[in-house]
Predict the 3D structure of the following.
Amino acid sequence: MEYLHLEVKKIIKETEDAVSIHFKQPEDKKIEYKSGQFFTFIFDINGKEERRAYSLCSSPYVDADLAVAVKRVNKGLISNHINSNIKEGDTIKALAPTGAFTFVPDETKERHIILLGGGSGITPLFSILKTTLEKEQKSKITLVYANQSKKSTIFAQQIEDIQSKNKDRVNVLHYLDEENVGKKKLLGLKKQKPFLTKAKLKEMLAPLNLKVNDPVEFYICGPSGMMKVAEDTLLSLSFPSSIIKKESFVSLETPKSKSKTKNKVEEGEPKKVKVKYLGQEYDFDVKPGVPILQTALDSGVDLPFSCQSGLCTACMGKLIQGKIDMRMNLALTDQEVDQGLILTCVGHPMSDDVVIEIE
Ligand SMILES: Cc1cc2nc3c(=O)[nH]c(=O)nc-3n(C[C@H](O)[C@H](O)[C@H](O)COP(=O)(O)OP(=O)(O)OC[C@H]3O[C@@H](n4cnc5c(N)ncnc54)[C@H](O)[C@@H]3O)c2cc1C
Ligand code: FES
């Protein structure tokens, strides 16, 4: 597998607990990506390999450099390592940008792109915002952006600048928890956190006067609770799930709770799996309870992966033959699963003739 070695050109402290990291585009071989995609960073921490996904916040059509923004997670190993230790001139090992949460501009389209983000979830949305603005002159953009406070809002100034220069096309609606603490208390809801609710989001979207048949597309990325509120709100407004795209950074669910297959095989004989990757064919005997990716890695086969928890699609493959049980899938849509796409990190063979192709 080919790895990237990204050279850190600049680091900007965006908020108290988040930095953006800007990388040089290699002169010899430009790194191609789509708005919404992510890098997988690979670190060696105390002799152990650690991989984490970070969405590009730069736009391939607007920004000369590549950039990500990383927010500290409480007790998080890599987010704190990046915020505390990475400096200009460092090199970060990475996998090429990937991911299915993409926005591909079409200059002929006249649509309304609605971005619903929270916290560090702004990163892929910021790239989509810049790309839409640059490449779809007839399209409008609305960003609904939830944060704890004004101070913790990543890219606050840049977003304000973009909005004030493009008032007719860009509409930004901020939701700040700090502004809603008092209100909840007044309503006697002391125990409730001041987070965005379905009712509040409906109220924020109402002036947009959106109609179900409008050429509108939604992109959601943020903390799990906020993402659920956003998706539930849109579905309750009768928007079809086919126009709602989501990217989850974290999962609060345990892998088993998402299984769609009832008769799981945890005991019994290993099953045969063939993986076709980069012109090679690999055969594995996959033991019950062990994901296909883990079996491959344990055998020394370097397949692509990032989150290892069914969130990101870095390990995605196409099922050519046989049956697979995905114990957790927060990344692929039902339509993609119907087309045969699978995640090897949470995929377990359910038949003895599985063949998977990874691009
Ligand atoms: C597709 C994808 C794109 C991503 N893009 C970005 C990005 O652009 N910017 C960014 O800052 N992060 C992004 N993330 C999250 C990132 O990959 C890491 O998960 C995050 O930085 C935490 O890693 P850590 O090593 O610090 O925490 P860990 O040491 O892995 O985890 C520590 C604890 O924090 C919990 N946790 C992990 N992540 C989060 C989170 N995001 N919020 C709350 N709790 C969490 C874990 O469950 C664990 O209990 C993305 C994740 C995915 C899957
Ligand atoms: S490695 Fe992220 S979905 Fe499999």
